[in-house]
Amino acid sequence: MGETRRNEGLDVIYDAQCRFCLRSLSLLQWLAGDRLSHLHDANDRELMQSKFPVLAGADTNDAMYVVTPRGEVFRGFFAFRRIMWESPRLYPFLPLFYAPGATLLGPRIYAWVAKNRRNLGCSLDGSKVCAIGRGPHATSNPGGTRPGNLDGVLANRQRGTT
Q: Which of 60, 77, 97, 113 would be 107's cystine partner, CB 3.0–4.6 Å?
């Protein structure tokens, strides 16, 4: 990956109405020591349709997505793992994401946290409700793949390869 591409940063699509999500990404930004990504609110449907058409129908209420400057798309656990590569200050965490069994346990842990984030201080107004609710396409996965298998799959679809 060229240095110019790397400096462009990642696009992170997440639930900006979720306090837990905001705190998690703020912590990552702070640990990285610099602005390593561009944060986008998944609840802004107009932005999603215009800037990230590859995520049309993605379950953005259930997971965070990362889109690289090359157009690769990562979901949930794999999105966090991709973020770890963006800053040398995050490299010490990489062994956790690549340890034996991480690709099996990581997505399950991520899914549990995402499902229970309302109990982890999610909503901005202090209620148990988080996000604006599910849109008509919120539960489908692009390409019909399982969530744990999206690590790069959408990038191939966008480039026209399988």
A: 77
Alpha carbons 62 and 40: distance in angstroms, whole number: 15
- How far apart, in whole angstroms, are the C-alpha atoms of residue 63 and residue 54? 15
Dump pLDDT digits (tens) for 37-87: 789 999 998 999 999 999 988 988 889 999 999 999 999 999 999 999 988
For the chain, the distance separating the N- and C-terminal CA atoms, rounded to the nearest angstrom, is: 21
Q: What is the pTM of this model?
A: 0.72
**Which one-letter DSSP state was computed for residue 54?**
G
Nearest to 124 by CA among 44, 45, 22, 27: 22
Residue 110: name the closest of 133, 135, 80, 145 by CA.
80
Q: Please give the Cα distance from 135 to 150 (Å, whole number).
A: 21
For β-strands 10-14 and 37-41, DSSP reports them as parallel
